[in-house]
Amino acid sequence: IDQIANIKMALLDKKELDGAKTDDMLPEEMSPLCDNLCEIVASMDKVVTMMTKQTAILKGVAELERHQQKQRGDSEDSILFLTWPVEKFYETSYELETMYKQEMKLKQTICSYVAHADNRELLMYYTAAWVHEPYIGTNSSFLLETLLHETEHHS
After folding, report:
1. Three-state DSSP state, 26
2. pLDDT(53) > 60
């Protein structure tokens, strides 16, 4: 995204200095960069889709666990790995999924519009939004780490 924004800003600067009329054509060197950005976004979308499927599975397992508890008249949660009940895995997964889905929508929007931005401020906004990931909460790393620790995938 930085390279695309830099090329666009250079074009905007040139047009501002020359007083040239805005050209809707994209520079040739931007085409592979835009294609690459679209491929990255598509790969990210696949990851988010897999995350959504896993969350749905965890939701189903949590509901099944609640149903079985009712059948047994049991109020104690079954521990799936170290200390978390199934419901905690679902809640954590759902929270992460929500963050990443929102971030994915932003990335898709940026990918669609960054090459067509017509002012510096918008390009700077797109770049900052891409890099700083505003929808990924500050606790996402903690949630991921505790999830990995709980499943013994990370010590």
Report:
1. coil
2. yes
